[in-house]
Specification:
Elements: E1 2-7, H1 22-28, H2 32-49, E2 54-59, H3 66-73, H4 86-94, E3 99-107, E4 111-118, E5 121-125, E6 129-132, E7 137-138, E8 151-153, H5 159-173, E9 180-185, E10 191-195, E11 200-204, H6 212-223, E12 230-234, E13 242-245
Helix pairs in contact: 1-2
InterPro entries: Cell_div_FtsQ/DivIB_C (IPR005548), FtsQ (IPR026579), FtsQ_C_sf (IPR045335), POTRA (IPR034746), POTRA_FtsQ_type (IPR013685)
Pfam families: FtsQ_DivIB_C, POTRA_1
Subunit structure: Part of a complex composed of FtsB, FtsL and FtsQ.
Amino acid sequence: MTVMVMSLDAPMRDDQMPAPSRLSRFMLGSGALLGAVAAVWSFFQFTGLAPVARLQVQARFEWIDPAELDRALRPLLQSRFFEVDLKAVQRAAAALPWVARARVEREWPATVRVRVWEREPAAHWHGGLLLDVDGTRFDPAGREVAATLPRLAGPEGSERRVLTMFTQLAAKLEGTRFALAGLRLDARGDWTATTVDGIELRFGRNDPLQGVDMLLGPAARALAAQMPDVEHIDLRYTNGFSVGWREPAAGNQGN
């Protein structure tokens, strides 16, 4: 965990600290016990009324831009330490694209501590968006992510369902000729997967997991010698499959 400390350039000054109240003077003179209570009360009063002197941020900073986070939080800290709206600071941090969640707390005498959990990208989502590992859609805000991440698509609200299905299906096809590169769910409920070799696997409205046995069994055996020529495999049949073939390259036509 990286700790970033951003000073607000507002150290406490003696002239900013209010004088002890009459109540505190009375309590200090009433005995050791009351004096200790008064000292604690005065400490929190003085520090609470002083301005925030430091912002401490804990984050990995792999995807989050520290300067962007600073710009989002600094305007909310231009007040007395005890008057800082911690919920507002938390909302401002959590609103940043790459922030999954945030926690904010005060640390006496004049520090606001913010802990930020970054999103972990899991897949590309159509429209230039990403999905994190929880299936939450978000805008990458110009950050470059690995092109090797799977490419998923589906109707609004289906993000987690599509990511879960892809994860399960990819695990079953890993290490085979049908290793997955992407998965799409259309508005009608039809599932279509794409392999890393560009073969389209059409599952229709059936559960894609139920088509794995047909794909890895009869289909794989029948197409073993012709796999480079396969454009798509249709697995919507109850007891079989059909195949679509790639168009021959222009230079090979007539050979």
